[in-house]
Amino acid sequence: MRHRLHIPHLSVLSCMFLLLAACGDRNDATADVSGTPLTDTAKLLSITDNGGYYIVKITDPWDTAKILHSYQLVPRGEDVPRVVGTTKVEIPLKKSLVYSAVYTGIIDEMGAAKAITAVADAEYINNPYVRKGVADGSITDVGSTMAPVVEKVVAASPDAILASPFQNAGYGAVSQLDVPIIEMADYMETTPLGRAEWIKLIGLLYGRYNVADSIYNAVSDAYNDMKRRVADVESHPKVLTETMINGVWNVPGGRSYKVRMLQDAGASYPWADDMSAGSLDMDFSRVFERASDADYWIATSYGYPMTRATLVADYRPNERFKAFKNGNIYTCDTSVTPLFDEFPFHPERLLNDYVVIFHPEAADGLTLNYFHKIN
Amino acid sequence: MMTLENLTVGYKSGSDQRVLMEHLDLSLAPGAVTALLGANGRGKSTLLRTISALQPPLDGRVLIDGMDISRCQPAQLAHLLTIVTGHTAGAGAFTVEELVRLGRQPYTGFFGRLSSHDKAVVAEAIEMVGIGHLASRHVATLSDGERQKVMIAKALAQQTPVIILDEPTAFLDVANRLELLMLLRDISHTQHKSILMSIHDISSVMPIADHLWLVVPTPHGAAESDLLTGTPTELIATGAMPRLFPDRPITFDPLRADFLPTPDSRQM
Amino acid sequence: MTVDRPISDRYRTVLLIALGLLTAMLWLACMLFGSVDIPADRVAAIVLGQSNDASEETWRTIILMSRLPSATTAMFAGMALALAGLQMQTTFNNPLAGPSILGVSTGASLGVAVVMLAASGAVMGYLGVATASIIGAFLGAGVILLLLLGFSRIVRSTAMLLIVGIIIGYLASSLISLLNFFATQEGVHSFVIWGMGSFGGMTLERLGIFAPLCLLGIIASFMYVKPLDAMLLGENYARNLGVNVSRTRNALLLLSGALTAVVTAFCGPIGFIGLIVPHIARLLLRTSSHIWILGGTALCGSAIMLLCQLISVMPRSSIIPINAITPIIGAPIIIYIIVNRNKIFYLR
Questions:
Q1: Handedness of CA C335, C336, C342, C348 (dihedral sign)
Q2: Based on the number of CB atoms within 10 Å of its own CB, is A132 exposed (0-12), middle (13-18) or buried (19 or more)?
Q3: Closest CA in chain C for residue B135
Q4: Which residue of A320, B148, C282, C303 sits 20 to 30 Å from the alpha carbon of B55, by its own alpha carbon?
Q5: Whether the predicted interface score ipTM is above 0.85
Q6: C120 touches chain A (CB under 8 A)
Q7: Global confidence as pTM
């Protein structure tokens, strides 16, 4: 998973575009968008079936009173009245530029990989179809998401670009091309199923709505089943997450998506009383005060397998945690495990691991997908 | 006593060398003030830099009390000659006394602690230059004339037989200028030091200097210079003074001991 | 003309003692007040080894394994950076020089960037991210320092050397940008955090390496009292006072570079301290005589760094990165100095 960082002049540009977009929205507020809703769990996404076309509204994650972007998805070749204030996207997409491995995986799963004709940050995409396509040149690699090579984007002439929006950051020169950018704000959802529901938008875009809907229903059912397994457990083991990096321990906020999943797996979280959806930067003292007696420790590494030795080498006092002494540390090297690519649309697979780890007594027949106990 | 032996000064860059003065053989009179006079760009500063060991001679050597200064360690040289090249901005936060104390560095130990003898030398230097009332003032708050005196006191505290000053009277008004020159003369006579200074202010220095070194163009022209030496009276009598500025619309007036505009120069 | 009040050595001695006491008090404050509330009497008992209660195990770990190394590191780091800054200001005769000016800390950053953004995970796995970064920082700073010393043989002029240093720093920054551009989000995130500066990653084991290295550099700084004073008069005067100028310049480059490298390797690139503290010391002690301001700079540096550490752990929810605090303290002082440069006694 990889996101663009702020680039000052781009953010100025994007502010201008946001302003323009905001003005446009106000003028066209009268547009008729009533239709049959297709989404219910996602907080930032609404899709309605308006008979003949679909209206997609993406809420601004940083100011939920505002709409980040509205789209009118129109079946290819059909002549329907334009809804003002929306970006028209002809579906299904035949050629698309996809910025993140998160989306290439799920698009392939829905059987629409052929419509991926260009990608950014190709070196971080492990999907075999995409890798092969990039290798033989049938899929264009437009370079970094931070600064895609505009000429390559133009040459690839995608019908749409799937990109992640960032606060105060635009899309650079590609936003000036006449190509709709689908602003995938799914990563800002606060519930796992809410994020997973964005698969419906991807399904709709790639002409696989029904497949997407059934994947979502299966995911949702599996997730809820998994949750039910631990609904009545007596104990709620305390869980510590991640590690201190350069003196800063980044822990998820009490209302975050990650913490919701831990709680759904029957765990208790040391900072459950925290009200933020983002994350907190703490020092060792504060983490240790609340989590020294945590029963489990879930930590990922990138590029190397985490072991007890690396934890001690990294920061000696790590060995003072109860979870370290008991060996209840579960880890996963995200450079070789598809955890980050999969969990957004398959939260049930991650929840599965959590249930197996925290409640083996309720995990009959389940095995770990991503994590392993530390060596 | 400082002696120049077959000294050639100039610049060397790579294989190119530019000679400014050649084969100088002379000595700096002890217990006397010698003024180095010359037009801009004739090599006064280069000569001063060479005999202060700030740049190597192209040939020949400079001896002080029999020691070749280009072979001296910096620490050794610090006992032989001291320079006064004006004030540097970095010194502003020192108090006057602190700055004069720096003159004792060649004599003090590792951390620069002053012995009672060192302190007495510093006090005497301050006293001699007449800046006792400024001792606890910061150098940055002083006037140009006062700063110049502080640097001279620092030079005195260093107790070297030779003191070399580069245009010590620049930026000073006439009162300060004369006062400073008289001070230097007193110092050289009472403490028996050789003082050499470059100076442009001919009228002020003529009555005070014991000796003059005149940097004049060589008769066969070119960029090279000759050095004429003697007492002011001698040099005026031999008509050496006008050679300082040949081909310029000014004339040396022996009575005033200064250059004046040539009467018909305006019509030129 | 501003009033130039005479300052006695007695006043300066008293001031240095007061600064020493202030530093000690701030160190104590860093031990007593942290992100976690622990009663003062328990802190004392724990430090004095009189706490054996199993229920205090958590507090013992926090105090002895986290607060003690962090506070002590802040103290040494402040001294080291401030002294490095003073040496740079004197060597380059430039009141706005600081430890980061010659690109030594940028070199350290480059080393860490290589480790965090480009090196294979195997290196990090084997050594641990923190140790790998420390080694990377030392190597990066070392390479830059060697380059500088190499140039110092070619470039005789101190001012030109300063420019060469600044350019080397720019080169290193551009390499860092390039590495960032092609790095993973995780790598960039860790690198950004590292760049914020922190004493929180310090352990007693690392303190055992860090403190002696700093102490060595600090002691070495005091050995240059005389040449530093002489250098303030400019190169010609310094040479005339018996200082071997080029050798001293190189030694001071090496020393301040090493001090900067050590702190940057262990705590990240901490800005402003090296630039402002020497000025605070000069303004307080009203001299640039190094026998006084070396001590004043070391103590002020410690005190300010400890204050930053204290502020960093103050908020209830999150910690504030050190580099977000130093400019808040440093910027007003720099602006004051620039605006009042005609009134400040030593800059006129």
A1: negative
A2: exposed
A3: C6
A4: B148
A5: yes
A6: yes
A7: 0.85
